[in-house]
Amino acid sequence: MERTLVIVKPDAFEKGATGKIIDRFLSEGFRIVALKLFRFTTEQAKGFYIVHKDRPFYRELVEFMTSGPVVAMVLEGEDAIRRVREIIGPTDSEEARRVAPNSIRALFGTDKGKNAVHASDSVESAQYEIPFIFSRLEMVE
Ligand code: RTP
Ligand code: MG
Predict the structure, then answer these.
(1) Complex ipTM above 0.90?
(2) Which residues form the active site (predicted)?
């Protein structure tokens, strides 16, 4: 069993797509072990995406992620990190609509920046991201 962090980003939350996105993960067989609604401060968003600090889109990403509430969850399942990345589709929502039309980003994202969801991309990133957002008390066993 593996755990991964998913965030419904401000664009998808604003659209009212949170329920559909959660439902999709449940129907794909994942178990929710933690869940919450909050809004990132600038410092928190910078820290969460620190791996991208030198990328040209870092500032835009932090602005986007702090622009409204998000819903974060920890999903558990076999091969969860890889499978969730597959279900969300490519980073660019327009590309997602071409190559993975049933992916979450194809269905709910707009473009490369506003792409509806975040998901951990490796065991290392999940190990950084899960405790960044959730304390042990907020996760079920
Ligand atoms: P995420 O971390 O949010 O799950 O997305 P990802 O792995 O598919 O993509 P990543 O390369 O990690 O980029 C993180 C987020 O930064 C925004 N981005 N904007 N304008 C741009 O060129 C650009 N490139 C990336 C997106 O919101 C992306 O999800
Ligand atoms: Mg990423």
Answers:
(1) yes
(2) 118
The model's pLDDT over 37-96, given as tens digits with 9 standing for 90+, comes to 999 999 999 999 999 999 999 999 999 999 999 999 999 999 999 999 999 999 999 999
The best mutation among 52, 115, 122, 125 to test binding of ligand 1, ranked by most ligand atoms within 8 Å of the C-beta, falls on: 115
**DSSP secondary structure of the chain:** -EEEEEEE-HHHHHTT-HHHHHHHHHHTT-EEEEEEEE---HHHHHHHTGGGTTSTTHHHHHHHHTSS-EEEEEEEETTHHHHHHHHH--SSHHHHHHH-TTSHHHHH--SSS--SEEE--SHHHHHHHHHHH--GGGS--
Mutate to test the pocket of ligand 1, among 48, 64, 91 (most ligand atoms within 8 A of CB): 91
Regarding pTM above 0.95, the answer is: yes
- Annotation-wise, does 57 bind a ligand? yes
Give which of 69, 79, 50, 83 is closest to 12, Cα–Cα.
69
